[in-house]
Design goal:
eight-stranded antiparallel beta barrel, 1 helix, about 10% helix, elongated
């Protein structure tokens, strides 16, 4: 009887060690960071600069599927906009818009987890906080007034699609197209799409 008990304990210990080793090799926890920047001209002296960044953590649930929490910030600056109809009544300068998104969702690999080049999709939901400010200059005036609009908040639907390329055992390079819709429950939600690139570290 003592021999069987001893064998059972040894078997359990070996099983626990093997399980721990397999979990360690699976890289259950991942961290990532992505960013993008662009400058678009609407006229010779009018342009919009956009910068975005995202960072977060991912936890592997099963092979090819992970739950991911991410923080995204999207900032844009439009240098000039004339308002008024039929004639211009004011000019807006340095229109700054900043959007912060706190989201959670599922990141799904579309191929086997053995592939070094991995297409993936992301589907999730989040909470958006956005604010905008600009300088208002009425026609005929030489002074500008800083206007800060009230902060807006809402629920977002978030989707993404991209390619993850394993460049080392613990590092992958990612390129992603990411989109979010503000207040998706409404008839005409505001939808924004942009691209970003970055790295993912498997821990």
């Amino acid at each position: 009887m003592p021999i069987r008990t001893h064998q059972t304990i040894i078997t359990l210990c070996i099983s626990l060690i093997l399980t721990f080793c397999s979990i360690s090799q699976a890289h259950l926890l991942e961290v990532f960071a992505k960013a993008s920047a662009s400058k678009n001209f609407t006229d010779e002296d009018r342009y919009t600069v956009s910068v975005s960044g995202a960072t977060g953590l991912a936890l592997l649930l099963i092979p090819q599927v992970r739950i991911e929490g991410r923080y995204t910030v999207v900032s844009s600056l439009q240098n000039r906009l004339d308002v008024g109809s039929p004639s211009v009544i004011a000019t807006l300068n340095d229109i700054k818009t900043e959007t912060n998104i706190y989201s959670v969702g599922l990141d799904i690999d579309l191929l086997s987890d053995k592939n070094s080049i991995q297409p993936f999709v992301f589907v999730g939901a989040g909470y958006i906080v956005s604010d905008r400010s600009y300088y208002l200059t009425p026609v005929g005036s030489s002074s500008a007034t800083l206007i800060s609009e009230p902060e807006t908040r809402g629920i977002s639907a978030n989707v993404g699609a991209g390619i993850r390329i394993r460049i080392a055992k613990m590092i992958a390079f990612e390129v992603e197209a990411y989109g979010y819709g503000l207040d998706p429950q409404k008839p005409n939600p505001l939808i924004n799409i942009y691209g970003n690139a970055g790295i993912r570290i498997f821990m």
